[in-house]
Amino acid sequence: MIRFEVDGPIAVITLDRPECRNAINAEMASGLEGAIDRLESDDSLWLAILSHVGPAFCAGADLKEVAAGRSRGLVTERGGFGGIVLRDRSKPLIAAVDGPAVAGGFEIALSCDLLVASSRSTFGIPEVKRSLLAVGGGLVRLPRMLPPAIAMELALTGDVIDAERAHELGLVNVVSRPGEALADAFTLAARVTANAPLAVKASRELVLDAHWQTDREGIDAATDALVELSQTEDFSEGPVAFIEKRPPVWKGR
Asked: Exactly one of 5, 127, 153, 244 is catalytic; which is it?
């Protein structure tokens, strides 16, 4: 149900339960958490793409599991819903969406750092239409990422928006042609992995922390991170490669 493949420094994690629109059951949640564990523990991997099989990215929770009283299996202790929405990570994750990402599926996409979506993709938290709540992060992350009125509209109407609208609102980084979201995610990933991986990890953490920091706190944190980075081999490689007019060879240490 969860596939893990490696292409150089990039891992591809694939939701592979198309017969159920990649709805999350206990096996999917456990597998997705395990995939993140593998990404984080392998120093040769710098980034991952979260993709999918079938016409839907993810329909959210498997309602058959919920109706059978097995909803607790959809949440892991470290990762929360789907084993991912609350999972601590240090490496970037790009969602490659080529179809509907709704309810918990949208919340999984929102837990990623970057989002590539094809023009046939749609996004929404329709839980209120079934007297449910979006408890996988949608009601927390959307108000941080969108204008307040738009976040409230999505939360109260449960309506979906298309990829173009999501791009206009800043939720989506790249809009792709149908069938090309994964390829475009690889292109975006290559732009990230061309850079020093330790600097990328530190920059990601600083950007995420900035939501809760004052300017002084953020600048102090960045300064501390730079001091730590200056002790690495890659810190020396960057200027040397520039002087020698060659591409840097990053080692991640």
From this structure: 127
